[in-house]
Amino acid sequence: MVCELVRHDGNEGLAMALELSILGCWRGYPLHVHTEGLRGTGKTTMIRGAAALLGRLTRIAGCPYNCDPACPHCPRHRGVSPEAIAALGREEVPMPFLEISASAKLGTVVGSIDLARLTAAANAEAALLPGTLARAHRGVVFVDEINRLADVAPELADALLDVMGTKPGRLQIEEAGLNPVSMPCQVTVWAASNPDEEPGPLSDVRRQLADRFDFGVAMRRPTDPEDVRAILRQDLLTRWFARGDLGTSAKPGRCTEPADASLRRRTSGATGGRILRLPTGEPSRGTSLAGGDPVNGAAGGQGPGHVRGCTSHGSACAAPPFGVR
Fold first, then answer.
1. Were 169 and a residue from 3, 163, 217, 236 both cysteine, which residue would form a disulfide, CB within 3.0 to 4.6 Å?
2. Can the peptide bond before residue 69 be classed as cis, meaning omega within 30 degrees of 0?
3. Local confidence band at 126 (pLDDT 50, 70, 90 cut-offs)
4. Helix, strand, coil percent values for the chain (each to nearest 5)
5. How far is CA 207 from CA 7, 66, 70, 157, 201, in A?
6. Three-class SS of residue 34?
7. Which residues face 56 on adjacent strands?
8. Which domains are assigned to the chain?
9. Is residue 256 within 8 Å of 249, Cβ to Cβ?
10. Can you list the pairs that 233-236 forms with residues at least 24 positions away whose Cβ atoms lie under 8 Å?
């Protein structure tokens, strides 16, 4: 089952940066990506779509910090013997993809006191509740409108600087009544912003944060009329699939392949071969990938402009996650 997003010269830069960043996640080396562009150019759609390609990781069973069984790092499992870790068991879970908004609170991002355990009727104790950054260990955090976050929530920008400053970064949680807790935090940060809107480009708002990104990708709308036709046609087909108007077994909100092979051939020709095929398992994620929103979805276009820090290493990806047919 796939969802399709038209790939053109306007979004190649971001696609390449995300491919390399995903490979970095798989290898345990975060590569941070920041994309800037006008509203409606598809930045958020493409980033959220790439989350479907992150894959899975193995962690200690039930660990909210995603501890690697071979190298536990969290307050619960750090220093525990390998035999005890083996007894706890392990599990495979999707690689985390979490989001931070400009309105988020510091406690929910970094971590805070677990009130449920503190007020438990039996065995009450002071314990930490991991925040977004701690739960995204070995995964990705997406920050939309990061320039606005840096302007209105400087304390959140400071937390991002801590986890992006080194590889892996460091996360320190300080709460009244508890000893400070510090741990490594291997988080990849993907961010998007609209530099033409207040408060302006991220480099003007918080230069230190802008410099932490390994890739800076400028986005623009598609300029080729054929690309625009392909995007609109693909958006229309997605809506048909979601409603089940093509006589398939499609369920609302889920992207599916059409049963009519001749329709597939016609639509493939209409898009001129500019199809980006993204696997998906979640209905809501599939819908957003295919561009259900005509403003921020696939009806917009994405463009590279420049990719800062992108070298010839990109050619080493012989079979990139973003497959073009």
1. 163
2. no
3. low
4. 35, 20, 45
5. 31, 31, 37, 11, 9
6. strand
7. 94
8. 32-218 (3.40.50.300)
9. yes
10. 233/267, 233/270, 233/271, 234/4, 234/5, 234/6, 234/267, 234/271, 234/275, 234/290, 234/291, 234/298, 235/290, 235/291, 235/292, 235/294, 235/297, 235/298, 235/299
Structure token pair of residue 167? 């590889």
Give residue 77's Cα distance to chain centre: 27
User: Residue 95 gets which letter from DSSP?
Assistant: P
User: Would you state the structure tokens that stand for residue 184, as one six-digit string?
Assistant: 């490594």
By DSSP bridging, strand 275-279 and strand 215-218 are unpaired
Of 95, 117, 108, residue with least CA distance to 173: 108
Kindly report whether the global pTM for this prediction surpasses the value 0.85: no
| Angle between helix 43-50 and 12-27 (nearest 10) | 30
Closest CA to 10 of 232, 308, 302, 323: 302
Give CA–CA dist 114/171, Å, rounded: 17
Mind listing the pLDDT tens digit for each residue in 157-208? 999 999 998 888 888 888 776 778 888 999 999 999 999 989 999 999 999 9
Contact assessment for residue 31 and residue 215, using Cβ atoms and an 8 Å cutoff: yes
